Amino acid sequence: MPGERLDEQTMALRAAKEFQDGMVVNLGVGIPTLCGNFVPPDKEVIFHSENGIIGFGPIVTDPEEADENLINAGVQPVQPKPGMVIVDHAESFIIIRGGHVDVTVLGALEVSRRGDLANYTLPGKEVGSLGGGQDLAFCAKRTIALMTHTTRDGRPKIVNELSSPITAPACVDLVVTNIAVIEVTRRGLVLAEMAPGWTFEEVQGLTEPELIPSADLKEIELL
Questions:
Q1: How far apart are CA 125 and CA 112, in angstroms?
Q2: pLDDT grade, residue 124 (50/70/90)?
Q3: Which segments of the chain does DSSP mark as H helices, in order?
Q4: Cα(219)–Cα(19) distance, rounded to whole angstroms?
Q5: Is 195 in contact with 218 (CB distance < 8 Å)?
Q6: DSSP characters over 120-139
Q7: Residue 97 pLDDT exceeds 90
Q8: Neighbours of 87 (CB within 10 A)
Q9: Torsions phi, psi of 94, nearest 5?
Q10: Residue 103 neighbours by CB under 8 Å, 6+ apart
Q11: CA-closest candidate to residue 67, choices 56, 113, 138, 146
Q12: Which CATH superfamily is domain 8-219 in?
């Protein structure tokens, strides 16, 4: 039997390991917003949100401490930090389209073997909402897709060809799921890390494209 799947907090912790000191990072709606809770105190990461706050801190969980005017992309209250600034919507998107976002972490419905991203529609819905996802996928220096490995009914979300409308082509650099960390490379999808208790064959069985085992394939590292 395969091992357990990682919970959302652990997935976010693994994705946050990719943030380096001094980076400008944008966090998409859903699981990605949790990444802001896992930056060590000795590392400075400047979080950017499309709605115009830059340099904010972790999500506020105590309603008594929440400021409804300081929210992230998921409409969650966040902590202010020294040096935080508030800009208008246009200036926020200038930062994105100007290529000043080092990493964006986006949720995904599907990622293809080429790194194509689909994330702005919901199954059964005729109309989706692109928001800033398309701008981020095209313009960020690096894109991480943070998502569950399969749908609720067990179908792969890492596929050969997208079945959902595309957000941006060949934009994803790294996929972090609840069972694996996969690098998107020119030679294909490289399985770099697996959740505890999983084997390469078990991860491959839930992934449509053929995976390439990394030369140093290992268990997911969180610290």
A1: 21
A2: low
A3: 8-16, 89-97, 133-139, 200-205
A4: 20
A5: no
A6: S--TT-S----TTHHHHHHH
A7: yes
A8: 15
A9: -65, -40
A10: 18, 19, 23, 24, 25, 26, 140, 141, 142, 143, 144
A11: 56
A12: Glutaconate Coenzyme A-transferase (3.40.1080.10)
| pLDDT at residue number 2 | 82
Sequence-ordered list of residues with C-beta below 8 angstroms from that of 184, at least 6 positions apart, any chain: 111, 114, 115, 172, 173, 174, 175
- pLDDT, one tens digit per residue, over 152-204 is 999 999 999 999 999 999 999 999 999 999 999 999 999 999 999 999 999 99
DSSP state of 166: P
Asked if the model's pLDDT at residue 79 lies above 90, the reply is yes
Vertex 162, ends 165 and 74: CA angle to 5°?
55
Model confidence at 44: pLDDT above 70: yes
- Give the pLDDT band of residue 17 (cuts 50, 70, 90): very high
Query: What is the residue extent of each domain of the chain?
Result: 8-219
Mean pLDDT of the chain: 93
Cα 132 to Cα 6: distance, rounded to the nearest angstrom = 27
Among the listed residues 95, 128, 119, 153, the one whose alpha carbon sits nearest the alpha carbon of residue 32: 119
Query: DSSP 3-state helix, strand, coil percentages of the chain (rounded to 5)?
Result: 20, 25, 55
pLDDT above 70 (res 29)? yes
- Residues designated as active site: 50
What is the value of pTM for the model shown?
0.94
User: CA–CA separation, 222 vs 15, rounded Å?
Assistant: 9
DSSP 148: -
Query: Which amino acid type is present at position 32?
Result: P
